[in-house]
Amino acid sequence: MELAAEDDRGAGIQIEIRPVGPNVLRLHFGAGASRPSRLLVDDAPSAAEWNMVQTPQGWSITTSALTLEVDRSPFRLRLKDAAGTVRFADEPNDRDIRGDYHHFPTGHARGLRWLTARLKPDEALFGLGEHFGSLDRRGQAFASWTVDAFGVRSDRAYKNVPLLVSSEGYGVFFDMTAPLYYDLGQASVAAWQATARADHLRAYVMVGDGMAPIMETYHRLTGKPGVPPDWSFGFWISRWGYRNRDEVMAVARRMREEKVPCDVIHVDPYWMRYHEGHHGDLEWDESAFPDPDGMIAELKALGFRLSLWVSPYVPLDSEMRADGERKGLLLKAKEGGGPALVHGFAKPSAAVDFTNPEAVEWFKAKTRKLLEMGVAVIKTDFAEDMPDDALPHDGTPAEQLHNLYPLLYQRAVFEATQDVHGYGLIWGRSGYAGSQRYPVHWGGDPGCTFEDMAASLRGALSWILSGAAFASFDMGGFFGIPTLTDPPSPELYVRWSQMGLLFSHARAHGHTAPREPWAYGEPALSIFRRYAQLRYRLLPYLYTAARRAPEGVPLARPLVYDHPADRTTWHIDDEYFLGPDLLVAPMFVARGRRDIYLPAGGWYDFWTDRRFDGPRWITYDAELETLPLFVRAGAVIPMGPELEYANQRSWDPLSFDVYPGADGITESELTDDHRHLRFQLTVEGPRVQLVGGAIDYEAAVRVHRPSTRPSVGRLGQPIALS
Questions:
Q1: In the prediction, which pLDDT does 3 show?
Q2: Is 573 marked active-site?
Q3: 381 labelled catalytic
Q4: Which of 21, 285, 314, 636 supports an S-S bond with 668, CB 3.0-4.6 Å?
Q5: Catalytic residue status for 445
Q6: What is the span of the domain harbouring residue 593?
């Protein structure tokens, strides 16, 4: 449907409205309706069956799942679900008693385009990327402009995603790379507004009952999340930074001596010919890291994989810069003919032009060289500071490329890793719409405080509510804040590590001090070891849950994702689900108590088997060694053996921890790279039986009951409850 409209000054504006799926339609205001998207995947939905009828007010467009009513004068949109409930409506009358506007109606002026939408009194808003304030965005305002956030305390963001999700059962995805500004009920409690600095505004409006169907629709548009390899769910150790081979190998050997399971050792810029200003030329510094092939082989023999740091910025005094400039592979400045410069560091740098296919291949070739020698994963740091005066190869204005630049950079490294290793994986900091295709992302540079720990969790959960399936953060915090210290206190290190080791991905990383657990003495080392070993025993559970990411089910997620109709969950951003059956409530104090919300259903305390029935709040007392952790009643948790690293051996012996539900029947599944098994638990009176698909070894079954000893048996055999 195409409309020729006029604004309040009589100027014409083109409007295109087109359903592209049963539950999603495309709105385009302004020029360039046929302009291709930079964010949609090739097989994104582009058409749907729909009917249009003319009404006294305007038009009505209907699909099997929604109806859009378009009023002619004044122009207004109302989006209804199949039952006729209004999910989304724009708001043309957000005024005060004088008639002055708090928000102008949907429109345009002076190079800006905006959408103004009604905000119901009890509506909550989520998404828009990794922001560190309250998970419910209502009452907030910020710009969608990717920057180095320099921490987790402001509205600056490393990862902006123009996806807004409402508790009213709709989502709006702005298919744009332009700067966007969101006022989410701050200037007025009756409306939210998104403003783009561009000659058009393009948005996809979706309806769905809860978070999951909206995320699934968003993924159909921008791509399904990739699933990283199983070993990536092990523990990663890092710091800024290991300065030489001896330091790396000393940490690797100590990890094994201390029996702390670990899979990945990461080396920040010091592995390469490092140039002051956080950049390097992607060539080994063999004076500090002699025989890197030998080091990688030595690490492999101990069960470790190596991660290396890279940046899209190129030192001006490097051969890489000279080669890139000679071949026209760097972003050029609009004036002067030289490279566009990235500032804000000790020395300015050039930047790779990822709009140039030859530059992409050049950067991939340098990355492949590292991967082919045995490097397992690349940390794709930075990319938030694309030069404002750049003239890219494909002619995209720098302002339109700025938010997109991290996506192009990380895609190149992800694809190079796939080419060499057969799996896709990065460790990235920046991001935009579509970045869920290229996991994993971590949350930047938090300070070593409990406040920053809580903000890091909020940022990760917000990233997940913006379409991502996996996330991480720097366990322990990255830097010391004046009057405080780096390293963190042992208590903060323990509490952050408990949360991190029971999150999607687990990496300890710090700025000036070690993050290895033995650096914090006892009891920190023993507590860390206990939770790291628990994580490794949970690998069958974690990887099985991770494999559901392409279906739109994140591995870690806030409570509202699973319980969108429970209004209490809308405002809880200090708890989360890990997979389908675990609920984690981190402690943000060394010891003491906290209030914990348990949503509907039965819940077992993981440590005591005490059962609670939700929905309800409970008060929980926890000493330093205890992280509040709950298991859903009806769950069957597959538990693997104790391991030093993820692929040390198969999940043998395997056991199942059973937490009976009220109906006595539940299902569980187990997935690794070789098999997919589904099991069913049946409880009949005092007997329990777990039956399922073929399995090549015996598996123990432990049945948990409140105030009783767990009963132990074998797969497929009845178990008498004690």
A1: 81
A2: no
A3: yes
A4: 636
A5: yes
A6: 556-599+608-627
